Amino acid sequence: MELSMSFLLVISVIALSPLCLALSSSDGHLYPQFYDHTCPKAQEIVKFFVAKAHAKDPRMAASLLRLHFHDCFVKGCDASVLLDSSGTIISEKRSNPNRDSARGFEVIEEIKTALEEECPVTVSCADILALAARDSTVLTGGPSWDVPLGRRDSLGASISGSNNNIPAPNNTLPTIITKFKLQGLDLVDLVTLLGSHTIGDSRCTSFRQRLYNQTGNGLPDGTLDAAYATELRTHCPRSGGDQNLFFLDFVSPFKFDNQYYKNLMARKGLLSSDEILFTQSAATRELVEKYAENNELFFDQFSKSMVKMGNISPLLGSRGEIRKRCRKVNHH
Ligand code: HEM
Ligand SMILES: *[C@@H]1O[C@H](CO)[C@@H](O)[C@H](O)[C@H]1NC(C)=O
Ligand SMILES: *[C@@H]1O[C@H](CO)[C@@H](O)[C@H](O)[C@H]1NC(C)=O
Predict the structure, then answer these.
(1) 3-class SS at 249?
(2) Choices 1.10.420.10, 1.10.150.130, 3.40.50.620, 1.10.287.610: CATH for 173-308
(3) Whose CA is nearest to atom 5 of ligand 3?
(4) For this structure, is 70 an active site residue?
(5) Rg, C-alpha atoms of the chain
(6) Ligand in nearest proximity to the CA of 140
(7) Ligand 1 center from residue 197 Cα (angstroms)
(8) How far is the centre of ligand 1, averaged over its atoms, from the C-alpha of 2 (Å)?
(9) Mean pLDDT within 303-308
(10) pLDDT band for position 3 (cuts 50, 70, 90)
(11) Distance 209 CA to ligand 3 centre (A)
(12) What is the pTM of this model?
């Protein structure tokens, strides 16, 4: 009896081993069908709440798209950006790029609550961010793509990573190119992903320097349309009004399209980091011109570059955890 039991055990281990191998090898990368069996309604649920939030606040699409970027550039796409400060964790929400600026956290938390009800401890916060970024793009008229899934959530955050890795609006083009390269993203990814600035807002404090001080940021004179500059100064005085908002793409601020690139060519980019794509290098200028002319080319490459950005150092297999709430790590 005992013998036959152990014989059976050996047989079943041998029989199941190819399956185990198949499972462990699929741990090695992200793929769109990751939740097809464990949480088939996951994508539908994310889409529903993103649409609801966008209906209530049309800017939210932009904010959610940006959150995924600010997540991926810091320790990879691991939802580190969503953690509040507690214990040894210092929240990335306090970093220079995020403070008084990053938004959409309540929407992600609302989605997470719904997903915990549907399939507990299954869908990561990092995957919610990646899906919400795609859904936001589609809702505003942009391209769609299959989102590779299976990221897990970090156990910590990095405020220094947030301060150092995410480019600032007054960084020089070589600095920005270096910061993208450090994430495995090339010049095409850079020019394409910055097309995200076709939607959403910036605070005055992020573009004031461009209005009143043309030195120190590598921008020669004449890179800002005079009438546009006059208009901007009324929204962003020399001092005060730091939090005043202005559209990143003033022509079609809620529509995901290639207008951003047309604005750059008209010297009506809002941020210094936007305009320098057109004024400071032939390679980036060529891409700006191509995208301004061909929306489809922009859309096709945007989908590809978003997948590439979403693939920055994900936590896979048993690394990290699936958080129950996105703003805090689980108790261990
Ligand atoms: C050189 C790289 C980049 C720089 C310097 C940059 C800088 C900025 C700044 C300064 C703002 C305004 C923030 C504020 O004043 O509150 C902003 C907004 C935004 N950024 Fe970027 N960004 C960069 C790349 C990206 C990328 C790669 C994406 C997405 C893939 C992105 C998506 C957005 C969106 C959608 C907004 C509007 C957010 C809202 O309205 O809430 N940006 N960015
Ligand atoms: C860029 O902006 C930051 C924040 O406003 C400022 O502290 C810094 O001096 C600026 N850098 C340059 C080179 O102008
Ligand atoms: C303009 O930028 C330069 C270089 O960053 C800085 O030294 C100077 O103080 C700035 N002037 C103003 C008015 O901000």
Answers:
(1) coil
(2) 1.10.420.10
(3) 216
(4) yes
(5) 22
(6) 1
(7) 6
(8) 66
(9) 98
(10) very low
(11) 8
(12) 0.91
